[in-house]
## 1
Amino acid sequence: MQLNTISGRFAALTIIFVMLAEVLILVPALASFRLDYLESRLERGQIASLAVLASDKSLADELEAELLQSAGLLNVVLRRDDIRQLVLSSRIPSPVVQTYDLREDGLVQTIDDALGTLLNRRNEVIRVIGAPVNQAGQLIEITMETAPLRTSMIEFGIRLLLLSAAFSILTAILLNVAVQRLVLVPIRRVISHMVSYAEAPEDARHIITPDARLIELRDAETALQTLQKTVTSSLKQKERMAQLGQAVAKISHDLRNILTTAQIFADRLEDSGDPKVKRAAPKLVNSISRAVNLCETTLAFGKAEEPAPTLSRFNLAQLATEVVEAETLASGDGPRVEFLCDIPPSLTIRADRDQLYRVLANLARNARQAIEGTGQPGTVEIGAGETDSDWWIRVGDTGPGLPEKAREYLFKPFAGSARKGGTGLGLTIAADLVRGHGGRLDLVRSDAEGSEFMIHIPRDMAILPARQMAGGR
């Protein structure tokens, strides 16, 4: 049995607590033993004195000494009819140091006297007064030495402690067996279920069935069962989603190729001489472009993970200008959207240029499309700056703001889009790319006056894994 186990510590604590209780019982027991010892000496003294009184003749010195020795006394005094009579006597080796009247001592006084006798190693002479049995006089008084009394008290205490130790060990063993059967065996069963479940969490046969008799253990098994069912269900759902994602990725790949070909032919329709065809061609081109973009974003999101950032230093204002130019061309003949860049011309940032371009392009495109959806002109502003700890980039617009549902599922794929027909993948991919730099993408505000996103990229790139640092310094 090891002390670092529940059963070992339980047994050790049981022994300690039982011994502590026995120690608390030992003191009153010693006091009671001392009182019984003195009363027995009084009785012996009374019997010896009655033997003397029953004889009309005086006893020989040898017989008197034998009676006193047999009773373990030095003197015996008996008071009858208000007459104090020294019945038995012998030489007292030393003066009497203490007198104890057993007729008056209470419990506290008895315990105090017992401790005093036990702690005093000197052999002293004491006087004990008590009432004779069977009303054989008014009182009886004996004189005795304390050494035999102290020896008997020590022997009694040792016997009591040994008996207590035996009971403590027996109690610990019985309790340990009870704990093993009632607590540890069910706990080991739960642990065994957890281990087997961890080896194959998708196998529903490994889910525990609560059958413990103890309420607490049954509650634990029930909670574990609920957790295992939830995990197993989530794993199965993720497996189905993964399979579905692979299927969607394959379909998107082939569909993108088909739509790209259709887009090429649709572009040629704009040169048609038929006015109806010429008017319908831009709408067809826009529809096909949106379908191609959906396929491309789905394929991008379906990758296992984005590649690690290839870090390099570049001018942020130039990158933002490229994004603005691309979005300006994409706005076409719709409502006029004005792009503003509030970035210091000399601001140099250290990041993956291509990935940061994708992040800004996604944010700028979302802002432009939100403004175009209102049919009113608006403004998209890209600002940036730096602090001692990071670089920050702000992308804001004067659009209608995001609806509550879009804000709730903002960075979740296929759930956070605010535009009809949108997938919500743009913000999800952008947030993943920023996290790959050790930074974060936050929605600062979104109300009737527009929306504002903030990008934070830390200057200390030590937080990135070493493989992400290989692209540049």
Note: Residues 462-473 have pLDDT under 50 and may be disordered.
## 2
Amino acid sequence: MWGLAAIAALLVVLHGNSAGSNSLVITAETPQSQYSESVFLPPSKPHPLPATLAQWYDQTNSGDYFLEVKPTKIGYLIWSQFPIKVYIQQPQPESSDAHILQSWAHEVLQAIQEWSVYLPLQVIAQPESADIKIMRSSPPLRIAPNQMPRARSAETSYEFYINSNNLLSHRCSILLSPSQAGQYLQAAARHEFGHALGIWGHSSLQSDALYFAQVRNPPLISARDANTLKRIYEQPTQLGWSLQRRRADINS
């Protein structure tokens, strides 16, 4: 069972203030004065396609499932700063199960590298610097009204933030259940990483990596997966663009 989740704390602030849905107000103090700062969301615009994705061409004319992909409140989940920095959980040297986690990390890495054909990726050692973090942990139970809790094998979530360059940005976390191994672990990693790259939706065909459920013989990344990813990156978004700020001195 696959899972998607959004941690959209920033959006709650954006839609909850009286300045309107396209801005937020920050109140702060310095030793000299107190001030407020209005932060306005950037307009929605497309980013240039990275060369790896621009060069992709489907000779089989397989189509896509773009209509199944849902944009967020600020547009599609598109990365615009490359390479995308990826952290895969690593074992502690003194851990008794270090060899298990090492094998797990190797399986995950193999699946992640398949996506580097389409977007530039960089695996890093420090989780705090990552755009996408992949952890060996069971996703929390999700309880729908009038339904029994359902266990899931993997989940991808995202959150928005303003980075040090004043760009509206996002980061993703992927949880992969420790109970999975081998080709099924790789399938889960491949699938969830597709979500993290921007395919925020599912395919209805079992031959696609982003098919909505696990299958007996997990597929590799299909032409339809790649076509869908390319169409997403051709869309406008507010992510990756600079915010406008207006500061006012409250004490004046």
Note: The helical segments are 9-16, 51-54, 98-113, 182-197, 223-233.
